[in-house]
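Hi there,

I know you've been waiting on this one. I reran it after we fixed the sequence typo, so this is the corrected version. Both the input and the resulting structure follow.
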Amino acid sequence: MGFRLNYIFFYKLRNTLRMTGKSADLKNLKFYIHTFGCQMNNNDSEHIAGILDSCGANPSDSLEESDLVVINTCAVREKSEEKLYSLLGRLNSIREKKEKNFAIGVVGCVAQLHRSKLLEKMPHIDFILGPDNYWQIPEIIPKHHEEKIISTKWSKDWHEIPDEQTLRTSRVSAFVTIMEGCNNFCTYCVVPYTRGREKFRPAPHILTEIQELAQNGYKEIQLLGQNVNSYIDPNSQMGFVKLLRKVNTVEGIDWIRFIASHPKNFSTDIAKAMKESERICHQLHLPVQSGSSSVLHRMNRGYTRKEYQQIIKDLRRQMPDICLSTDIIVGFPGESDKEFQETMSLLEEIRYTNIFSFRYSPRPLTKAENITDDVPFAVKKERLIAVQELQKNIQIETNQSLIGSTIKVLCTGKSKKDQNIYSGRNKGYQVINFSSKKKVMDQFVNVQITSCGPYSLRGHTV
């Protein structure tokens, strides 16, 4: 095939690095990381950037000026894969024009899912690393011109990445991983095959990282995992609720969030901890996927429409101000008009602050791949438009109700065109664009809301 799977090399390399703690010297190498996917992927990219930076490499602002391009991939949706292949085609054109050495690496979920098939389709890729293997990049770079390298071996142990080897994109808001993998095997979902089974980060490591972030001026943290509700400390057996309460005691952190939660693992104890912990934001992303119990059963979600509704009622009873978001899949195999209307009625009932909606597409290795995809594409498209239009109207009404109010915002962005225009998010994770005559980047500010659109609020500092 023109390449070989170099697993033995990486097994020896990992042991050597763990014994010596040494990193490769990549001084003056310019790297560019392109990320597809969720917060987990963004967090992984920050780790990759930090690892390369600690070896002397420098981030680049463009693909063309880079010596190394790393594409961190997402396999959850077919569309993400299509975008990957489009980008790889563009990179091949760039490589042909460059005189100097130019390395291309694909890491993450698609790398884990397709492995050698990626090289068969795109032979100009230099290395492929799964989510458990990207720490190997520093030693791969000097060798990529000698052979094609694939490393996608799972590890049952937690591989700790030191915080100093994380190049964060924000100076005030940080991701903190607490677990990886998934044991749920929803019939449509490829995550158990790309991220592996659940494994949990030791609680002392989590708390130490958060304490260090607080000392370095970070104001907001987001606990990450495929299913954070199932967290269990591998040593003390402490569960997610106790972890939340411990994180809440860290001085210096103002806002705490967590994602993703699975409804079947969401307990009243979690809602109670959110209510009683002053630093935990009253905001939750709780993916429902469908409003129909029969579709949820076919998806193997482990809960019914009624059980999901009860979770929402309990959350709003304890926290009337809570902001909720969710994921919706339309056109799952066998979805009837009646079942789709159940999703629409659930959206009208719950009135989420935000949703992420998708057309169903079969993914490799999943059980649903073997079920006839019998909902026509045109129907899926029509249903997706209907969902998004309904939600757009809900968000407009919700946002309009906030006009005239003053909201606390953490400023995390700034306009490149106007030095007085900033952006940030409130406790409910809503986007706020606002004007300020003072420099407020990376600060908390009070913003009076003067207008809105369906996807953001607008105002000025007061």
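Quick highlight: Residues 1-22 have pLDDT under 50 and may be disordered.

Best,
R. S.
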